[in-house]
Write the structure tokens for this entry.
Amino acid sequence: MSNEKRKVCGIDVHKTFLVATILDREGNVETRRIRQDQESLIALREWIQTERCESVAFESTADYWRSLYLVLEDRVPVTVANAYHIKHVPGRKTDITDSRWIAQLELNGLIEPSRIFSGEKYDLRSLTRSREHLVRNRTELKNKIHHLLDTSSIRLSSVLSDLFG
């Protein structure tokens, strides 16, 4: 028994729209441009299911891919690829050629899937990253204040062990 895919969908993700291409082993290709809103994403999911696609692949472009992933994850196998790992075809680059390239890679099993967190793990990871960002910003601001005081010849650090404590 072969686990070779016979029909897949490759999607080029943008902020306000998607370009989806369904590709099969016989070389049949159908491409559609879809808006990035909930109603259109559900229509895309229905199209993918109607066409009996075995999987869907797209790049993890900023956070624009997240809503697409949430609409598709429970209905069809999804491969989220790191954009850095997908080598594009040299030459003129368009959204249609990108979506076809992603579909070809998925059809041939050449996409290394990214690790996707969902549910509580996603929330915890987001909170952890936000905290790291806030701590980094706080440290930068404290260092700027220390530097401003030092350049103004105000040496509070020699009197106080912690200016912000």
Observations:
- The beta strands are 7-13, 17-24, 29-35, 55-59, 78-81.
- The chain is about 40% helix and 20% strand.
